[in-house]
Design goal:
This protein is 38% helix and 14% strand. By secondary structure, it is an alpha/beta fold.
């Protein structure tokens, strides 16, 4: 195949034609997360998603068939994968690549796509290629989304859902999604309020721009927040940034000696001789912890995998709730609950697929002997 070179003249002519075609059809306007007014075609049939989590949000709208290209994150082969949206949509890895992961888009590749996108959704706008420049160079409307989170940044997340709903004209689905997340969080909180004598807990091995060892944690880890858990890593002040990754010292873990330990299984990416599981098995400090000696260490789904996994965060909260307060969650089957969540969000039950990738350690006591 001949390689196509995009000269300045070619790009100018291409954008001129594209602009004429856009002007020829009626437009509508949407305000994105950066308060930019974006002009859009009346009907959207072709999109691409740039930045961590962008494609995840689109699958929540059952709009994966609109995606005409992906970043190179979706085409990489890996031993582990904890992205339910990807496991539910293996066709993504067969699509053309328009740029690098974490928002490092390639305008020339985008302009060369056979199925030309009408809209680019972009999360984490300050990461990778500048969205305004991307719009100028491609002539394609760029809609910026603020990814948010499920704790202090919940309004930002819900605003992203509302913006996507407006762009894709699926406003009712946006409302369903917001209701879904709110209902889960409210039920978890209601089940676990007014508990006087709580067991202490800690989660280690949380990924942050890659896998980490057992000291890697989140002081405001959402599943702990939703179930009112007594997290030894919590600062007690949750008025600042929603999520601040922390390397909690081994000395502090030993001093607090939590009753229950949870292991974020993303740490398995580090291999047999590294990571949180290896440390729990071999480090004398960890081997002396009460939770280790009493076999109270449990594996949970990865919290971060190309940013936060919202569905898995809910699923983990239900499982952790059952471990910490078994009487309050006696009616809960965590694996079934996880698949109920995934079926609503990504249209397929993918728990078994993820569990098999992570050595069937999800929602199980961790063997550290």
């Amino acid at each position: 195949m001949k390689k196509i070179y995009f000269t300045p003249l070619f790009t100018f002519l291409f954008l001129a034609v594209f602009t004429c075609l856009a002007i020829a059809q009626p437009l509508r306007q949407v305000t994105d997360a950066n308060l930019r007014v974006v002009n859009l075609p009346q009907k959207i049939d072709r999109i691409i998603c740039s930045g961590p989590g962008s494609l995840r949000l689109i699958t929540y709208f059952d709009a994966q068939d609109l995606v005409v290209a992906v970043d190179d994150m979706e085409t990489k082969k890996r031993k582990f994968d904890a992205r339910p949206y990807f496991l539910a949509n293996p066709q993504f890895k067969e699509l053309p690549v328009f740029g690098g992961f974490r928002g490092y888009d390639d305008p020339e590749k985008i302009l060369g796509l056979k199925n030309f996108p009408q809209v680019i959704f972009k999360t984490y706008a300050t990461m990778g290629y500048d969205p305004v420049e991307l719009e100028q160079k491609t002539g394609i409307p760029v809609v910026i989304l603020e990814y948010g989170d499920l704790f202090k940044g919940r309004k930002k997340f819900f605003n992203a859902l509302n913006i996507i709903g407006q762009v894709l004209q699926k406003e009712s689905r946006a409302k369903e999604l917001i209701y879904f997340f709110n209902e889960h969080i409210h039920e978890l909180e209601n089940r676990t309020k007014n508990i006087a004598d709580k067991k202490t807990c800690f989660i280690g091995g949380i990924a942050f721009k890659g896998p980490h060892g057992f000291q890697s944690t989140e002081p405001s880890y959402p599943p702990f927040q939703f179930i009112n858990a007594k997290n030894i890593a919590s600062t007690g002040d949750m008025t600042g940034k929603s999520f601040h990754h922390s390397n909690f010292s081994k000395e502090k873990i030993l001093q607090a000696d939590p009753d229950i330990l949870f292991l974020d299984l993303s740490t398995l990416q580090m291999g047999e001789d590294h990571g949180g599981l290896h440390e729990l098995k071999n480090d004398p400090v960890y081997k002396g912890l009460t939770a280790v000696t009493t076999n109270n260490v449990y594996g949970v789904l990865p919290y971060n995998w190309y940013t936060q996994n919202f569905g898995s965060i809910l699923a983990d909260a239900w499982y952790i709730g059952k471990i910490l307060y078994p009487d309050r969650f006696a009616d809960t089957d965590p694996e079934k609950k996880a698949d109920d969540i995934y079926e609503f969000l990504v249209s397929k039950p993918v728990f078994d697929s993820m569990n098999s990738l992570f050595k069937n350690m999800v929602f199980k006591p961790v063997d550290i002997n």
